[in-house]
Automatic annotation (TrEMBL):
Limits of the Histidine kinase domain: 885-1113
Protein name, per record: histidine kinase
Occurrences of domain Response regulatory (ranges): 1133-1255
Residues in coiled coil: 841-878
Organism: Pseudoduganella albidiflava
Length: 1406
């Protein structure tokens, strides 16, 4: 027998050694601040609906998880609580709530929210102690047993009668003491009564009571009984002022077997105020000033829970006055001084191992940085105070402080631990690493210490299977051989990619294959211990299969050999694929509440448990299901330390953090699976609560009973805005409950909401029947059944069926009466109408005729208006055509002038004076061309599209340039030209010099045009008076004045002087010429420059035109040196598509002078064919050519050419050539596929730039080009081709006489060029005339326009201006198909051509 007992004891001790620590309780508090009427919670109960009720010294409170409803005594309300001191709450089997107060027994009616009062009737001399209700139990027959301060009472609710039992001194079977503190009724129906004199027993059917006295621990004196509990096992728990006893009742008449709990049972010797058994059978004891205790039957010990200073989730107070376990698993603890505490017993399963200031020998510090096994169920714990040997079951710890460091400072912080198979501990700290022998309690010498805590701090310690110790720090990775003391260091070498990735090293792991994995702050490394080389695995933001983050915190290998990597941003699962190693990521997107992983531990079911910065999480690798746990589930608060984790042999997991250790058996961690019940807790109309029984001003009662008990509700149409508040009666974590509600008949789907918005508001619902449904889920996502409330909204009187029926009858009756009266009136009116019809018929016919006449007049007026609109449109179109054609016609002769002047300037033998005159002529021609371009922009001015520049320029130089243009004209006319330029003007200003020069040229030109004698004066000065104001700082308003002594202007003509196409009178145009646009353009340009222009004139005396413009102070513009144009680097092969020989010659000469090869074709079809034979680098494409024009040829080349003859290069550069400078032409050519645009006359610089772009483009495409020699052979001094070369260009046979005298000078060379151009034109003329006659005969407007266009261009190069003007008129007529006008002008054209042929023929015959 003794041996068996010893074996049982040994097994029990082994079980204790390997058992997980007891679950700790994390309490949430409810105090006066959260709505309690008073701090002392004396009783707790849950009604049938699920509300929690609290009895306090200040009244009764109902709690729904979010707010409390207070019920207190009111003197003027007989249905209020009878007294505010509530000691007892009891819910009977019928679901009725009984309230025991210090003024009797109350019954709460949930339908009316009222109380009924029941008081015993006894002689007055006994006082009111019989109304102080201290305990209530059921009697098993529908009645109640009441324990009061003056006797025992049996109450029959059916009759309202009391049966009272008192102490009788002469009756030993009477009550031992009149003060009843506690009642308990066991399964056998026996009533146990606790009094200050002990315990009394009233058996069923017994005539008297049996008395049992209770003595203290030493048996010297009797002690009062404060609490009783008859548990489900038949044990009677007796709580006294001196402790707790177990009683095992026997037969009804026999005395029970009594046992006092020993001193080592964990319960202090104090007053046990409450005893309670929860739904799981656990017995709880609440004590006065010693806290709460939980009975552990396996160890036959109590586990205590006390209030701890600084821990808001400990028990609210140590004086426990009430205990209750509700139906959803929440355990409630009422305290005397600080409200009520609650904890969810149906979920969780975590234990918090923390420092307890009230318990000597507990953990010394809560910052647990390392945990390893110590054997026998104990742990080695490293924290900021040192190394502790800790027993999780008892909470006892022994502290070993680390020796002082070499510099004399204390090295208290333990940052890493490793236990060797022999039991030796390697202890890492901020000063390095040392060994510790548990047997002797001595520390070894300090290793890896440099005196720099930043680098000496050990972050992780690991031992491999070979016995080597690996130490991680911020200074690299160390391998220590404990046997020989050898040490090897691995550090990051920027020059060696196979070195350690970073010196900050954290976890080290040796997997089952012997691979050593090292986590750093720059990724994961795999160390080849033979070579010392690392293979790196790092984060790549472009590769989703890479590590989620480079900062590695923990490494774990699971039972299947899979490596898991915890990082600062996500958990990573290593996977071996065909492409190598990849990682599967688990982050917040996969459900983790926090993805900063601190440690990873497995449980026995194959799940992984993760500690993070904000809690714990479990991951099922098979399903990827994640569940998060936080302090609300019973874990420690806050973050966990990296690597601080340990899995015990019995399956218990330990995670160390900033605030202690979380310990748990994963098999015992469970969610709360009880679904919440939803109650509708408030009903409001227009944000005003509606109380049961409350009536409207008209006497209607909306709520007949409380909204919590209402199942159907009828509202009036006036109740257009109403709200329903609801609560989930689940108290595990009310703030995390979820809700969904729906008003059937209105809401199409469920509306989801959280605990912060527990109400639904509806406005202006249509009359009808609705059903409001609301359901809730608890903190673990378990949804309950919906609660329903039927709502009927009555229609207003005018929408009821009877009102509408009555209204319909009245409406029909009234309509019938009106109909009868109307019919009588109609009959009378019909007679009168018949009499008036004949008269009105004649009147109507007359009006019809009048209307027909008016209609014809309106149609004629409309026709005139349409005709006027067409004329206006024609005028607008003609104006645009006029501007475009005038620009084109003026540009063509200017092209010849500019071109010839350019050729003349090539003569290096020119005299300086001659060169200056030619350059001035060329500048004037360019200026005139610029003005012509501005004239083309007149339409832009009208449309508001023309803008002015704001650049720095020299004001004096601009004025001088304008003056130089008119010096020769002034001398020729004998007019004195004066310039008056003020000295105080700024040297440089900001504005548009081109537009300013254009206005000045216009005004000065007009002055010379209308002045035959006298003088013309140009004055420039600052504006004075009011005109001097300027909106910008540093700006000056400058007035430009042009004064002449010409013919003057009549005063009546001045107002319209600046209008379009206006001159003083018609004779001015005939005598002096002009279009009348000059002053209009000037006025609009001045307006664009924010200026003003005015004119004053006296007929016969002269005119004064002045304008002022604001010009801000500027700086000297940067001088760009006139460098010679750089020659091209490569030679291009250019194709020119141009149908007129004169243009062909000019282009050929320009290209060959620049060193490039050129082929000439006469139309677009030949250009496409040439591209099929030769690979060209650039095409210069004329717009209008016979057979195929430029845009059509471009599109054909871009398309690849015809199928039988594809082009060699469809992507070569194509540049348009045309004399038409409009934006429409440019857009049309670019849309056809051309790359750029050159206008005639061709500017050599612009052509040079296009050739340079073509070279760059071909080289970029990889096309091989011949290099151009650095220095090309120069032509003779005249820079002109010889006569033989010109003959070759123009196709003239060698030896053919030249139409003019030969000469060798530069002028002779220019004359030779012009004569050769004439000869080429004459040679080509018969063929062109033949084509022209054929086009006219066929009425081919396009061909005719093209031929006239070509003749116009040739005439410009030949300086035949009259012929040029006539060809321009004929081109416009051909474009508009005006054949009569063309035939009318053809004889004049033939006459001019004959005059042109005559000198040529004569020259040749000579």
């Amino acid at each position: 027998m003794t041996a068996r007992f010893l074996v049982l004891c040994l097994l029990l001790l082994c079980g204790l050694a390997s058992a997980a620590p007891p679950r700790s309780l994390r309490f949430e508090q409810l105090s006066v601040q959260e709505g309690l009427p008073q701090e002392s919670v004396l009783a707790i109960a849950q009604d049938r609906q699920g509300f929690i009720w609290f009895g306090t010294q200040g009244g009764l409170a109902r709690y729904d998880g979010y707010r409390t409803v207070i019920y207190q005594h009111a003197l003027n309300d007989p249905h209020s609580l009878s007294q505010n001191w509530v000691r007892v709450l009891h819910v009977d089997p019928a679901g009725r709530l009984w309230v025991g107060t210090d003024n009797g027994l109350d019954l709460f009616d949930p339908l009316t929210q009222r109380f009924r009062h029941f008081r015993p009737q006894e002689p007055a001399q006994r006082g009111n102690g019989n109304r102080h209700v201290r305990a209530i139990v059921d009697d098993g027959a529908g009645g109640l047993w009441l324990g009061t301060a003056d006797g025992l009472q049996r109450f029959d609710p059916a009759t309202g009668r009391f049966t009272i039992f008192h102490h009788a001194p002469d009756d030993p079977r009477s009550l031992a003491h009149d003060q009843v503190n506690a009642l308990a009724r066991d399964a056998a129906g026996r009533l146990w009564i606790g009094t200050p004199a002990g315990v009394d027993l009233l058996a069923p059917g017994a005539a008297g009571m049996a008395r049992f006295s209770v003595t203290g621990p030493n048996g010297a004196r009797a002690v009062a009984v404060q609490s009783l509990l008859a548990d489900r096992d038949g044990t009677l728990w007796v709580g006294t002022h001196a402790g707790l006893e177990h009683w095992r009742p026997a037969v009804p008449a026999a005395a029970p077997r009594r046992e006092r709990l020993p001193d080592n049972a964990g319960l202090p010797a104090g007053a046990v105020m409450n005893l309670y058994q929860d739904a799981e059978g656990t017995v709880w004891a609440g004590m006065r000033n010693d806290g709460l205790f939980r009975w552990h039957p396996q160890t036959r010990r109590f586990i205590g829970y006390r209030h701890e200073l600084g821990d808001p989730h400990s028990l609210a107070d140590n004086y426990v006055s009430a205990l209750f376990h509700d139906r959803v698993g929440t355990f409630w603890v009422g305290t005397w001084f600080n409200g009520v505490s609650r904890v969810d017993l149906s979920s969780g399963g975590f234990a918090r191992l923390v420092k307890n200031p009230d318990q000597p020998g507990s953990l010394s510090d809560n910052r647990v940085r390392a945990i390893v096994d110590a054997g026998e169920g104990r742990l080695w714990v490293g924290n900021d105070h040192g190394l502790s040997l800790y027993d999780p079951t008892t909470g006892q710890a022994r502290l070993y402080r680390l020796p002082q460091a070499g510099n004399g400072s204390s090295d208290a912080n333990v940052t890493g631990l490793w236990r060797t198979p022999g039991g030796t501990l390697w202890v890492g700290s901020r000063a390095g690493v040392r060994t510790f022998e548990p047997a002797t309690g001595h520390f070894g010498p300090l290793l890896l210490s440099r005196g720099n805590p930043e680098l000496d701090t050990v972050r992780y310690v690991f031992g491999d299977r070979a016995g080597m110790i690996w130490v991680s720090s911020k200074a690299g990775l160390y391998r220590i051989d404990p046997a020989g003391g050898a040490m090897r260091v691995f550090r990051h070498d920027p020059g060696n990619p196979a070195s350690l990735a970073d010196d900050s090293v954290r976890p080290v792991l040796e997997d089952r294959r012997g691979n050593l994995w090292v986590g750093t702050f720059n990724g994961l490394g795999l160390l080849d211990r033979r070579t010392g080389r690392f293979r790196h695995f790092q984060h790549d933001q472009r590769d989703p299969g890479s590590l989620s983050h480079n900062e590695v915190h923990y490494l774990h290998e699971d039972a299947q050999g899979t490596l898991w990597v915890g990082t600062a941003s996500g958990l990573n699962r290593m996977q071996h694929t065909a492409r190598g190693i990849a990682f599967r990521r688990y982050t917040r997107q996969e459900g983790l509440a926090d993805d900063a992983i601190a440690a990873i531990l497995p449980d026995r079911q194959g799940k992984l448990w993760l500690s993070t910065n904000s809690g714990l999480a479990s991951l099922d690798p098979a399903t990827d299901q994640v569940r998060n746990y936080s302090g609300a589930d019973g874990t420690i608060e806050g973050a966990y330390f990296d690597g601080s984790a340990f899995a015990a042999p019995d399956g218990t997991l330990y995670f160390g953090g900033f605030n202690g250790i979380t310990a748990f058996d994963p098999a015992r961690v469970r969610p709360n699976g009880i679904a919440p019940v939803v109650a509708i807790t408030d009903f409001q109309i227009f944000n005003q609560p509606v109380r049961p029984g409350a009536a409207r001003p008209d006497g209607d009662v909306i709520l007949q009973r409380a909204i919590e008990a209402t199942r159907a509700l009828t509202l009036d149409h006036r109740d257009s805005v109403f709200s329903l508040e609801f609560a989930a009666l689940h108290f595990a974590w009310p703030q995390n409950n979820r809700f969904a509600y729906q008003l059937e008949g209105f809401d199409g789907d469920w509306v989801s909401t959280g605990a912060g918005k527990r109400f639904a508001t509806y406005t202006n619902l249509d009359p009808g029947h609705y059903v409001f449904r609301v359901k809730a889920a608890n903190k673990d996502g378990v949804w309950g059944e919906p609660t329903e409330l039927a709502i009927t909204i009555l229609p207003p009187v005018w929408k009821t069926w009877w009102f509408r029926s009555l209204a319909l009858v009245l409406l029909l009756g009234g309509a019938f009466g009106v109909y009868r009266a109307r019919m009588r009136v109609l009959r009378d009116r019909h007679l009168r109408l018949e009499q008036q019809v004949s008269l009105r018929t004649a009147e109507v016919e007359m009006k019809n005729r009048l209307l027909m006449e008016q209609k014809r007049e309106l149609e004629q007026r409309d026709e005139r208006l349409r005709h006027a609109a067409r004329r206006a449109e024609d005028a607008t179109r003609q104006k645009s055509e006029f501007l475009a054609n005038m620009s084109h016609e003026m540009r063509t002769p200017l092209a010849g002038v500019i071109g010839m002047l350019g050729f003349a300037l090539r003569d290096r033998s020119l005299q300086p004076v001659t060169r200056e005159q030619i350059e001035r002529g060329q500048a004037n021609a360019q200026s005139l061309l610029s003005i012509i371009n501005d004239l083309l922009d007149f339409s832009k001015i009208e449309a508001g599209k023309l803008t002015v520049e704001k650049i720095d320029f020299a004001l004096a130089a601009t004025v001088e340039n304008v003056a130089s243009l008119f010096e020769e004209q002034a001398a020729a006319q004998g007019v004195d030209f004066r310039i008056d330029y003020a000295r105080d003007l700024p040297h440089f200003v900001i504005g548009d010099p081109t537009r300013l020069r254009q206005v000045l040229v216009n005004l000065v030109g007009n002055a010379f045009k209308f002045t035959q004698r006298g003088h013309v004066t140009l004055r420039v000065a600052r504006a004075g008076g009011e005109e001097a104001g300027c909106t910008e700082a540093g700006c000056t308003r400058i007035r430009f004045t042009v004064e002449d002594t010409g013919i003057g202007i009549p005063p009546t003509e001045l107002p319209r002087l600046f209008e379009k196409f206006e001159q003083a009178d018609a004779t001015t145009t005939r005598r002096y010429g002009g279009t009348g646009l000059g002053l209009a353009i000037s006025r609009q340009l001045v307006d664009l420059m924010d200026g003003e222009i005015v004119a004053h004139s006296t007929p016969g005396a002269g005119s004064v035109f002045s304008f002022t413009v604001p010009l801000c102070d500027g700086i000297a513009p940067a001088l760009v040196p006139q460098a010679a144009r750089a020659p091209h680097t490569h030679r291009l092969k250019v194709l020119c598509a141009e149908d007129f020989p004169t243009n062909q010659i000019i282009i050929r000469m320009m290209l060959e002078d620049m060193g490039h090869g050129v082929d000439i074709v006469g139309n677009g079809a030949l250009a496409v064919a040439a591209c099929a034979q030769t690979r060209y680098d650039l095409i210069l494409m004329d717009g209008r050519m016979p057979e195929m024009d430029g845009p059509t040829a471009t599109r054909a080349i871009r398309a690849g050419g015809p199928a039988g003859a594809p082009v060699c290069d469809r992507h070569l550069m194509i540049v348009a050539l045309t004399a038409n400078a409009s934006e429409e032409d440019r857009s049309r050519y670019l849309a056809a596929g051309m790359d750029d645009f050159l206008t005639k006359p061709i500017d050599e610089d612009a052509l040079h730039l296009q050739l340079a772009r073509a070279i760059e483009r071909q080289l970029a495409r990889g096309v091989v080009l011949d290099p151009l020699p650095a220095l090309l052979p120069q032509r003779p001094a005249a820079a002109q081709p010889s006569v033989a070369e010109l003959d070759a260009m123009f196709g003239i046979a060698a030896g053919q006489p030249m139409a003019g005298p030969p000469g060798g000078s530069a002028d002779d060379a220019a004359n030779a060029l012009r004569l050769r151009l004439r000869d080429a034109f004459v040679a080509d003329l018969p063929a062109r005339l033949g084509e022209l006659h054929a086009a006219l005969a066929a009425a081919d407007a396009d061909a005719a326009g093209r031929l006239f266009h070509g003749m116009k261009g040739s005439a410009a190069y030949l300086r035949e201006m009259e012929l040029h003007a006539l060809c321009a008129e004929l081109e416009r007529a051909a474009d508009r198909a005006l054949w009569p006008a063309i035939r009318l002008k053809l004889p004049r054209l033939h006459a001019m051509l004959e005059r042109l042929l005559a000198p040529a023929d004569g020259g040749r015959s000579a």
